[in-house]
Amino acid sequence: MLGDPAFWQALRNTITISLMQLLLYFPAPIALALVLNSIMSTKVRRVIQNIVYLPHFLSWVIIVAIFQNTLGSSGVVAQLAIAAGFDPPRIMGNPELFKWLVTAEVIWRETGWGTVIYLAALASIDSDLYEAAAVDGASRWQRLWNVTLPGIVAVTILLLILRLGNILTVGFEQILLQRDAVGAAAGEVLDTYTYYNGIIGGQWGITAAAGLVKFVLGVTLVWGANRLAHRFGQPGVYQ
After folding, report:
1. 125-153: pLDDT as tens digits
2. C-alpha closest to that of 49 among 60, 37, 66, 40
3. Would 123 be classed as within a structural domain?
């Protein structure tokens, strides 16, 4: 497996997509939870929560179809560009934009659902802390920085460590549905690599080896991130 150039290409694609999702998707539920928590009207907040939760319950087949009908060569965006006298942009099926596309799909599908834990953490913050900060003259941003964010830092670090453990898992079904449209060079990840070589090709040794690589790297990242969290005085995943 280590001598196969396709494996290294799949590994690079997997790490790139994982890092993009870590930088762009991971903060999204935090930001959305802070926005929802700041809405005073309970009814409005519940309506928005229900709307942003819905994409999580859609299958990847439906998600990809929605993006295809929106950003595809004959989708809404392309039709609007043609009507305005411009060349239609090539988004779906573009190897150069593929990694950005799958990241955007994850953000759209999972951000609302990811707020559940953060909203629970925000609800557990003692309201007396906000009142004391307001009495001391703290502005809204100062209360956010000194009360709200410290109140959810432990949960954030915990979820970050768990995410690092799955850094080489970027969504098999989502990638498989779109891999052929952009080619293996841009769309192959470790999960699809093991699928085509192991399940389809019958090379079970490669499948086991790829799984071992994911296991070793995942355990190493969780162990290192947990030790780093302890150095900063956070509980992490385990003591």
Report:
1. 888 888 888 888 888 888 888 888 888 88
2. 37
3. yes
